[in-house]
Amino acid sequence: MSNQDQAPQPRQTDRWLEPGKTNLVVIYVLFLASFFIGITGIVGIVLAHLNRGKSEAWLESHYTWVIRTFWIGVVGALVSAVLFVVLIGFLTIFLVAIWIIIRTVVGLQKLTRDEPIDNPQSWLL
């Protein structure tokens, strides 16, 4: 039997695109990297939306968590941009950034312990 008769094996590196724990780790890391390379957050949210609804319930809580973190963070950043006019935007954008970092780290910690997010709909932690 030659190599041409065998079906191609999926590459191990492709697993990060499939719904699941590895994909979520990539999304969390992309969110953290977005503070240095802005576009990575957009890549992360696209991956989250593409893979939502395709995995186990405890993983779905993480997809909901990262999607809400992204969109609430975007709204917070937009409000902060408007508030730059009255100089309070400098404080609020800093608070939004801290909020995103904390939620991302909490989600990543729970994911590595194979725990679901207790209340993925929450605005807090």
Question: How much beta, percentage-wise?
Answer: under 5%
Radius of gyration: 18 Å
Oligomer: single chain
Return the average pLDDT rounded to an integer. Answer: 89
Could you describe the largest sheet, including whether it forms a barrel?
none
Number of strands: 0
Which sequence of SSEs, written as H and E, runs from N to C?
A: HHHH
CA(first)-CA(last) distance: 56 Å
- The best one-word shape is elongated
Describe this protein's structure.
This protein is mostly helical and 125 residues long. The chain has four helices and no strands. The model has no long low-confidence stretch (mean pLDDT 89).
Key structural traits:
mainly alpha, 125 residues, 4 helices
SSE arrangement:
Layout: H1 21-33, H2 39-51, H3 57-83, H4 89-112
In short:
The chain is mainly α and 125 residues long. It is 62% helix and 0% strand.
